[in-house]
Amino acid sequence: MSVDVATLSKLRWRCRRGMRELDSAMRAYLDNHYQSASDEERALFVELQEMQDPELFRLISGKAREARYQHIIDKMSDAMAGRS
Asked: What is the pTM of this model?
């Protein structure tokens, strides 16, 4: 399930958010988990990238939960903590 360089570049650019915490979380997932993810998980990550920053921050910070994204959020947390 390799991903072409152009797709990764586009995704990496979309990881650039208005908040350092979001940038770090999104890049952590992209760098450590995206390439080995299922097609479904990749699609969910793209959905996360399409969210507005306040909504995404609530999910990543644990202030809100949405079951379908939780697996990705957990992977982001693990990657940022060096547990990937």
From this structure: 0.90
